[in-house]
Design brief:
By secondary structure, the protein is mainly α. It is built from 3 helices and 2 strands, in the order αββαα. Strands 1-2 form a two-stranded antiparallel sheet.
Length: 99
């Protein structure tokens, strides 16, 4: 593995940003819980307005189970299977330091 110090710094910076985003997401969820607990349908701040929808229910269709009931052939499934466009994925993990 080639060790480019510039890229190494970018890795550490990205991981630090990800940790900050996780902390901010937790804070946001806690604040949103307070807003929901208030019971108000609409709350106005100085610069923003929040509308709260309660007990929102979405229908979710289990297409895989429906398809399985029809026992489609492998050929039919293959004929209607496609791949998404290639995309990049970045995964983070803590580095294991030598003991």
């Amino acid at each position: 593995m080639k060790n480019d110090f510039r890229l190494s710094a970018i890795v550490d910076q990205c991981a630090a940003l990800r940790a900050q985003i996780d902390q901010l997401t937790e804070q946001k969820r806690a604040l949103e819980a307070e807003l929901i607990a208030s019971g108000e349908p609409k709350i106005e701040g100085t610069f923003h307005v929040v509308s709260i929808s309660r007990d929102v229910v979405r229908d979710v269709v289990d297409w895989k189970s429906i398809a399985a009931k029809f026992e489609p052939s492998r050929q039919l499934v293959t004929a209607h299977t496609s791949q998404s466009a290639p995309c990049n994925q970045v995964r983070y993990s803590a580095r294991k330091l030598p003991e």
